[in-house]
Design a protein that fits this description.
With 71 residues, the chain is α+β, with helices and mostly antiparallel strands. It is built from 1 helix and 5 strands, in the order E-E-E-E-E-H. The model has no long low-confidence stretch (mean pLDDT 95).
Amino acid sequence: PLKKVLDNPVCCYKDYDGAKFICKDGTWLLIRLSGTEPKLRIYAETPSKKKSLEYIKYGKKYASKLMGVKL
């Protein structure tokens, strides 16, 4: 699992609904497969829309690297 999301250290990892990386500051990144479609879904929660979009971009790069495909 990831040790950091961008510059934020990950303090908790949950895998019951995909891969959720919870950071020390309370922000999180979730990468999961859709249960109804052949799609990968990436979610993030941060204090700002800008930071959330950065997390999602980071998650997309991470998932792409793991799967060996360009997303």
